[in-house]
C-alpha cells in the first residue's frame, strides 16, 4: 500500500515497485485516514507512508495504522525523512520499520529505485500472512543455545539496524534505571539523526545518553551511542576505559558497525561483557560476537516474532553464538538478572 497525498508520488512509486515481479500494489491512499479505512478491506505486507499529508498526517497516525495493519510493516518514504530527523526518529520509535528520504520531483530514478526495492525485500512478508510455501524458520534454524557466562556483567553493548529504534525503546523501558554498568549502543543511522536519536533514547532509558566522542569516559548507567560516521570502540585510558572512534572499513561494510564494538569490548572485558543483537538486516555483529564468545562473554539476540527484520539476530543464532533468543523486554530482564541492578520496572 502506498500512502501519499501526491498523485505524482503515488504513480511513480507504483511504477517502481511493480517493475519488480516480487511485488504488487494492493492499495493506494491520499491520507492516513483513507489508509486506515482501506486496511479494513485489503491485506498488505508493507505500507509506504509519507509523513507530510493533510488531516492527522503520517506521524500521528502510525499507531492507528499499525493497529489495523495485521502485521504489515510501515516504511516511511518522505521528503522530511532526512532534514526532519526529529520526525523520522519519532516515527521509527512509534513502530515504523524503516525510513527512506523521498527525492524531489524528477529525481525518482536510478539509485533511489534500487534502494527502495532492496529495503522492501529485506522487510519481507507481514508477520501473520506469509505464504505456506515459505518454510518455517524453526525448520531451517536449529542451532543450540549456549550457556550464559557465570561472570557478573560489567559492560553491556547493544547493536541494531532496521526496526532497531522501536526495539531499543522496548529494551530500555524494561531495563532497570540503575544497573551500575556502562552501556554502548550501535544503531545504523546517518549522522544527522544521532543527536535526536540520543535525546529520544535518553527519555526512554531514563538515564544519561550521549553521542560518542573520542576519549569519553565509560561511567555506570551512562549510555553512549556510536556517532553515525565512526565505529564505537573502547580502550584503556589512564583512569579507566574510554571511547575510541574508528573510521576504518569494517567486515560487514557498515558504518558504524557492531563488529568493532563487540571486538573491542571482548578484548577489554572478556567474560564480564554482554552483547545484545536486535532487529536488522544483514550479518553485522557476527564476527564481533564470535570474538566476544571466544573471550568468555555472552551474546543475546532478539527473537523472530518481535523483529522488523530477523537478519542480524538470526545470523547470531545460526552461528551458534546465542545464549538467549527473546523479545527486547525479556532480553532486558535477562541482562538485569546478571548485573545485580534490582527488579525491573
Automatic annotation (TrEMBL):
**Annotated GO biological process:** methylation
Mind telling me which InterPro entries this protein's record contains? Answer: CheB-like, CheB_C, CheY-like_superfamily, Sig_transdc_resp-reg_Me-estase, Sig_transdc_resp-reg_receiver
**Entry's transmembrane regions:** none
What's its EC?
3.1.1.61
Q: What is the reaction catalyzed?
A: [protein]-L-glutamate 5-O-methyl ester + H2O = L-glutamyl-[protein] + methanol + H(+)
- UniProt keyword Hydrolase, yes or no: yes
Keywords attached to this Swiss-Prot or TrEMBL record, sorted alphabetically, are: Chemotaxis, Hydrolase, Methyltransferase, Phosphoprotein, Transferase
Q: Please tell me which top-level EC class this enzyme sits in.
A: hydrolase
CheB-type methylesterase domain residues = 144-342
Which CDD domains does the entry mention? CheB_Rec
Q: Which PANTHER family match?
A: PROTEIN-GLUTAMATE METHYLESTERASE/PROTEIN-GLUTAMINE GLUTAMINASE, PROTEIN-GLUTAMATE METHYLESTERASE_PROTEIN-GLUTAMINE GLUTAMINASE 1
This chain belongs to the protein called: protein-glutamate methylesterase
Organism per entry: Sphingomonas sediminicola
